[in-house]
Amino acid sequence: MLAVSHGRQEMVEALLACGADVNLQDEEGSTALMCACEHGRVETVKLLLAQPPCNISIVDSDGNNAVAIALEAGHSNIAALMYAHLNSTKMQPPGTSPTGTKSPASPKKPN
Predict the structure, then answer these.
(1) Per-residue pLDDT reduced to its tens digit, 85-107
(2) How far apart are CA 45 and CA 4, in angstroms?
(3) CATH number for the domain including 16?
(4) Residue 18 falls within a domain, yes or no?
């Protein structure tokens, strides 16, 4: 989280490339995403959200998630980015891929 709070994007990238746990919480329950939200690090938020296991719903010891922290810190642009990410990763309707295109038809079952 030190790399995140100090705006060291290249260090965050290197840590993630080495397998750092994107959802690791410190003693106060904060994650790297929460730290990036608090400090207004938009590019770091984007990088962390791009990691498949990144969990926006984790709460800290005060019960706040990353969206709440972004809003409390006055970074509504980051909160909007996270809402957009949540909407884009919601479960897709049956028969579509995550890109919204039709999936190949499955074989029909005989009656």
Answers:
(1) 988 877 444 444 444 444 444 44
(2) 9
(3) 1.25.40.20
(4) yes
